[in-house]
Amino acid sequence: MCAASLLLLLLPLVSAQTYHWGPCPTPKVQPNFKLQQYLGRWYEIEKLPASFEKGKCIEANYDLRGDGTIQVLNTQFYKGRVNYAEGTAVVPDLREPARLGVSFSAFAPYGAYWVLTTDYTSLSVVYSCTNVLNIFHVDYAWILSRSRFPPPESVAFAKELLEKENIELCRMKATDQTGCPDL
What CATH topology corresponds to 16-173? Predict the structure, then answer.
């Protein structure tokens, strides 16, 4: 199959995503990242569109497994029920522990999960990007908080950081965290 045909087949898959021409940017990540402090529950506050996240009350829980991998348990409330997605995260290079890889299928490669900044207790900014045939890239960004309703200045700080790293935010949208069931 020629590259042009493959590209046309892939475009509908990324229509709910944020994509741009050219290669992925390489933003700076959290220096001296401490995985143990990062573990636990994070609520999604804002995100770039992701086809796998359509609900509300989205949260992610990270827990260290006995084999050294990280259990990732994402939950969302969608169409009247709670949906779960369990994955595995790894630290491919211990010299850069804030550049994690995450996969939600034994058959899928690990995708980027880069912690750009975190204070571990209230805010985290995460970025992911996938090159497609080195023609364009699909990127994701999440602003996470330990609280469903962080202060507006924290969200503004996170957006400023993403913009400084040349990550386009025009499609970023807030995640509804109101009326959430206990997940």
Answer: Lipocalin (2.40.128)
